[in-house]
Each structure stands twice: as C-alpha cells, then as structure tokens.
C-alpha cells in the first residue's frame, strides 16, 4: 500500500465518519454533566463514582448524534475502519490507574479522567489525518493538570467545564476540516 492509498483510506474515514464529530459532541454533553456533578455537595469519592456512571452514557449519545448528523460507524470497504474501535479500546488499559486514583486519591479523579480523555485523542490525529486531535489532546491533558495544580478542590468542577469547552472547540474544528476535506476531494474528483 502506498502513502497515497493510505491517505485516501484516511480521507474516506474522515468523510464518512465526519471526523468523529458525533462522539465529540456526545463527550461534550457528558463533560458538562461531569462538571455539574463536581459542583454537588458529595464526597470526592461519590462524585468520582457518579462520573463513571455518567460516562456510560457516551455511546448512546454518540449513536443519537450519529443518526442526527448521518455519520457512519461502520465502513466495511475500508480496512482502516476497525482501527478506530481499537484506538478507543486502548483507553480502557488506563482504567487500573483511574481505579487506583478513585480508591486512594479521589480528589484527583477528575483530573486523571480528563487527562486520559485528552490523551486518547492523540492517535485520532493520524487516523483522520488532521491536526485538531493532536493539538486538543495536548491542550486537554496539560490544561487539566495545570488547572488542578492551580485550583482548590472546591473549584475542580472548572476542569470539567474546561474539557467540555475544549471538546466543543474540537467539534467545531473537525466540522470545518470535514467541509474543507470534502471541497478538496470534490475538486480533485472533477479534474
């Protein structure tokens, strides 16, 4: 397979999956809910457990956005398509660390969850062949760390709102890239 063929397969993924906008919008809603949870007057441990529970709504929300935005989750003629699922499953191997933080240092659960969320976006930059995921992976991961270092524990919910804002920016950026990629693809198809 040549680089040109590989890039064509990646462009196909970006076009049919619309750069994963359905998942990003779903995650934005989840992170708003998480931020609200971290305002509530519960212990850090309880808020962390509620965060896990709310996180389980990601797939149903993403499916709803997929129907609304007409994105494809399955692209059977593209051999790279299963890689997207594997990249997503990779973050599950960070969960032992997340569970450790939940049990030993629950005040830092939100930051840890945010860093894992941000870091897992990095390989999608290659997958969809756009820099938005790489840039936002760094901003989310390091931004979450810096915010947690600077904030008091009563203000950790701001990290959740920060992540939601970053995800909204990522969704908008990916939407713009999707339209630019489609225009470029249409222009090369006409020649």
Break the fold down into its secondary structure elements and pairings.
Blueprint: H1 3-17, H2 21-37, H3 44-55, H4 58-69, H5 81-90, H6 95-104, H7 109-119, H8 122-127, H9 132-150, H10 157-190
Helix pairs in contact: 2-3, 2-4, 2-10, 7-9, 7-10, 9-10
- Helical segment count: 10
* Proportion of strand residues: under 5%
Taken in chain order, the helices and strands follow as HHHHHHHHHH
Q: What do the pLDDT scores average to?
A: 93
TL;DR of this structure?
The chain is an all-alpha fold and 191 residues long. Helix content is 76%, strand content 0%.
Detailed description of the structure:
The chain is mostly helical and 191 residues long. The protein has one domain (3-190). It contains ten helices and no strands.
Comma- or semicolon-separated keywords:
single chain; 191 residues; mainly alpha; elongated
């Amino acid at each position: 397979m040549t680089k040109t063929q590989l890039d064509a397969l990646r462009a196909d993924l970006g076009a049919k999956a619309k750069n994963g906008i359905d998942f990003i919008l779903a995650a934005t809603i989840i992170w708003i809910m998480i931020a609200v949870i971290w305002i509530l007057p519960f212990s850090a441990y309880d808020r962390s457990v509620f965060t896990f529970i709310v996180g389980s709504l990601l797939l149903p929300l993403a499916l709803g956005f997929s129907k609304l935005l007409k994105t494809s989750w399955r692209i059977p003629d593209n051999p790279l398509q299963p890689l997207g699922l594997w990249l997503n499953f990779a973050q599950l191997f960070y969960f032992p660390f997340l569970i450790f933080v939940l049990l030993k240092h629950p005040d830092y659960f939100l930051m840890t969850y945010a860093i894992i969320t941000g870091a897992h976006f990095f390989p999608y930059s290659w997958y969809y062949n756009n820099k938005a995921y790489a840039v936002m992976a760094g901003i989310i991961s390091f931004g979450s760390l810096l915010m947690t270092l600077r904030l008091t524990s009563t203000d950790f919910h701001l990290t959740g709102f920060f992540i939601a804002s970053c995800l909204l920016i990522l969704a908008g950026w990916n939407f713009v890239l999707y339209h630019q990629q489609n225009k470029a693809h249409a222009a090369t198809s006409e020649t």
